[in-house]
Design a protein that fits this description.
By secondary structure, this protein is an alpha+beta fold. The protein has helices at residues 22-25, 50-56, 74-85, 91-111, 170-176, 183-193, and strands at 9-12, 26-28, 32-35, 38-41, 66-71, 120-127, 150-155, 161-165, 200-204, 208-211, 219-221, 230-237. It has a single domain (9-237), classed as Jelly Rolls (Sandwich), CATH 2.60.120. Strand 3 and strand 4 (38-41) form a beta hairpin.
C-alpha cells in the first residue's frame, strides 16, 4: 500500500470547535477500486497512526490547502426537521419557509466567517442507505457532484455521515500529471494508476459540515452502514 503524500489537510474552521479528536473521526484505507470509470473506496477502513494524523490534519492553514469542518447550532438542526415534519403546507409556503431557513443558515455561517461568496445557493439532497458513492449515478470520487460549484455541505441527518476525499488536490495532481487535462481527468488518471493510494474518510456528526478548498478536490459521500437516509444541505456558488 502506498503512503500519503503531503497535501490537503483537515482543519477545524475558524471560530468552530469540534469536541472529538481527529483520531476518533478520521479513517484511511488501502486505496480504491476503479470499475468502468467509477472510482470507489475500498472498505478496509482503519484508524490512522499518529504520524498519519499529523500529515492529514492541521491546527490551521491557508484555505487553498485545507478542508475545514464546522458545525451549526442545535436550533438550526431542529428547525430543519420542524420544516420537514409540516406536511400540510402547500408548495409555495414550503418554498418560502425553506428560503427563510436558508437565509438564517447563511447568516450564521457568515457570522462564523466562513468564506461565503456574494451569491450562494442552498439545496437539500437525500441519499439512500448502502451507497458506495452519493454522486449522481454512484459516479464515484472523480465524478461531477450533483450541485456544480459546491462550496460545502452539512449533515442534517440524525445519524453520522461520511465524507470521503483524496488528499491530493489540483496543484498536487498537476505536478504529477502535467498534460493539459481537466481536474477530474487528472484525478481519475492518478487513481487508476495508483489504486493503492489511501483515501481519507471523515465522520460528520448530525449538524456538522465541511467546507471545500477553493481549488478542486476529489470527494464523495458513503452511506454504507447507515440505517436511515442521508440528508445533506449543500451550499454552492451561483
Amino acid at each position: 500500500m502506498a503512503n500519503h503524500e503531503p497535501g490537503i489537510r483537515l482543519v477545524n474552521a475558524a471560530h468552530c470547535h469540534q469536541a472529538r479528536p481527529w483520531g476518533e473521526r478520521v479513517r484511511i484505507n488501502s486505496g480504491v477500486v476503479v470499475e468502468e470509470g467509477r472510482v470507489l473506496p475500498r472498505c478496509d477502513w482503519r484508524a490512522p497512526s499518529p504520524a498519519e494524523i499529523a500529515l492529514l490534519t492541521a491546527g490551521d492553514g491557508g484555505p487553498e490547502e485545507t478542508l475545514a469542518l464546522f458545525n451549526i447550532p442545535q436550533r438550526l438542526h431542529d428547525q430543519w426537521w420542524s420544516l420537514e415534519a409540516d406536511q400540510d403546507r402547500d408548495a409555495e409556503t414550503k418554498r418560502a419557509a425553506f428560503q427563510e431557513y436558508a437565509g438564517e443558515l447563511l447568516a450564521y455561517l457568515q457570522f462564523k466567517q466562513l468564506p461565503l461568496p456574494t451569491k450562494c445557493t442552498v439545496s437539500a439532497l437525500v441519499h439512500a442507505v448502502d451507497l458506495a458513492s452519493t454522486k449522481p449515478n454512484a459516479g464515484g470520487l472523480t465524478a461531477a457532484p450533483a450541485c456544480p460549484a459546491t462550496l460545502g455541505g452539512i449533515n442534517l441527518s440524525d445519524e453520522e455521515a461520511a465524507l470521503v476525499f483524496l488528499n491530493l488536490g489540483a496543484t498536487h495532481l498537476a505536478a504529477r500529471i502535467p498534460a493539459p487535462t481537466s481536474f477530474p481527468e487528472r484525478a481519475l488518471a492518478f487513481l487508476t494508476a495508483c489504486s493503492d493510494y489511501p483515501v481519507v474518510r471523515v465522520a460528520l456528526q448530525p449538524g456538522e459540515g465541511f467546507w471545500l478548498p477553493p481549488s478542486p478536490v476529489a470527494y464523495d459521500g458513503d452511506t454504507r452502514g447507515r440505517t436511515e437516509i442521508d440528508v445533506q444541505l449543500v451550499l454552492h456558488r451561483e
